[in-house]
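Deliverable D4.2, example record:
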Amino acid sequence: MSHKGLYALAIAAILAVGCGEENKDDNAFAKAETTTADFDFTVGQFADIKILRYQIPGFEDLTLKEQKLVYYMTQAGLAGRDIMWAQNYRHNLEIRNALETIYTSDKVGKTGEEWEQFETFMKRVWFANGIHHHYSNAKMKPDFSQDYLKQLLAESGATLEGEAFEVLFNDKDSKKVNLAKDVDIVLESAINFYGPDVTTAEAEAFYDAIKVDENEPIEKGLNTRLVKENGKLVEQVYKSGGLYGEAIDNIIGWLEKAQTVAENEQQGKALGLLIEYYKTGSLDTWDDYCIAWATSTEGNIDWINGFIEVYNDPKGYKGSYETVVQIKDFDMSKKMAALSVDAQWFEDNSPLMPEHKKKEVKGVSYKTVIVAGEAGDASPSTPIGVNLPNNNWIRQTHGSKSVSLGNIINAYNNAGGSGRLKEFAHDAEEVELEEQYGQLGDKLHTALHEVVGHASGQINKGVGTPKETLKRYKSTIEEGRADLFGLYYLMDPKLQEIGLVEDWEKTGMAAYDGYIRNGLMTQLIRLELGDNVEEAHMVNRQWVSAWAFERGAKENVIEKVTRDGKTYFNITDYTKLRAIFGELLRETQRITSEGDYEAAKALVENYGVIVDQDIHKEVLARNSQFKSAPYSGFVNPVIVPQMEGEEITGFTIEQPESFENQMLDYSSKYGHLD
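Output generated by the structure prediction step:
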């Protein structure tokens, strides 16, 4: 699973949870060396979005064969870009084509307030891969009028009619993913994983009827769209010759080129299985690929490619298209390997009930990587850490890979600071801790979350998978469980013993301060006043923080302070807070292991969803002084082949001129589903 701390979250860089000064160069988590002199990490800003750019340090040190592999895999990723747009909403591609035709037309008058509003809307749609906000899931309505859009369509010759036009201005399909209590979460979610007339009950009955191997279950429904044909539910499979086949054929073409330059036999085998999967749509082949990929640990190049994360499916079955191409950062990976080596120690010494602990934690590898390109659900809004594969039996039997996207984190850290820390921190001591240890604590929390968090615990025999038992609460419970595992160990001297920190106590204190500050206050800057929390990661940070606050109330473990009309949360006893995190971790693992839906529902609905409106109003008012946008994302560097005839002789790396130019270039080159 991805950690959009990342997941599009990048909490540290964006919300000043971990935006302090970098630690000493000899620290195990000091950022990877990159050439930052005279490099401008900021591209531009619009609405609530800041666009950044990143470098690819080390690309020039790869062999030509390795560079070709990176290039072919990035091209394979971009070839499927349109799939993400189509998955996000059934009219997205039609809307994008019309808006881009207007945007590039020389017959349109491009002046005035409404044109500026059109430009902003165009950029927001590009960033979100559709008309629903990339994070809040709410439909983004234009500030310009229907009549103005009709005028632009007429002037440019673009066409947008019927529901695709009307939905921009009405209240239909208002949420991409609607997990609100007591609604039909499938029927009322605009995500295009299901036909617009499919209900939750119908989807549940359909997938409940599919029997899978109890010991090695496939991820049923992962790569399909469930629709009604002549009143009967059928799956449209993503594959060559099937749904999204035109884009998938282009993906396959680039993967076949990549296979010719594989670094070793196991890597080539994994690519061959991925190609077969795209050709057939077989989920058994997908499992075979995931095993081959998870056990392919040699070589300098790696990738994430497929229909993977299920956060966008209200039922948690269907994977969003996502690709990340990676170059290993060997120095940082060596330093971070300490967590992987001691994964069993963390499991054995955790506060989980004995019956919920894994007797053997299999093959958790954690590496820092350098991103060379991203597409689909990972772009423009990117993870900062990923743990895959998601299929639990594969993770337990064959192991998993956890990666930290080093150059992405580096770009966030170099893109400029924020004054939010001093505004929302309780006192000077909290600010000092954050500035000295916050960035380290946040990186370490990401590592603990991915390596030991997601890898920990086991489900009781005979209990179904979390998507079956916990249903709509599966994603936020899992992310909260991994967060809690990391939080529990952030205040443990073991981290200093294995050389990851120089002062475990102060690092843990800074991390706890940042988590509570964000979970109870600063993440609310992402929401409109009156909204509830809906995104899985935001929900989990609120229920973890709010439950801990309430649990420690009698002893005032976290005190709520009001000073000069402003609210602060101050941790008075970090040791007791750690114990509270351990207690909640044990309960969250019990919920997962036993499939306790009612307990999951109570935890999330009582603590994670409802926003204190007075606090929210205050946070927005205090935040209004800051100009930095609350969300950030990236343009991708462009890897350009140097040719002699038909032969690639080398590559150059160029930075795109602007966000707009890259988006238009992508639509031109990779618009395979237009």
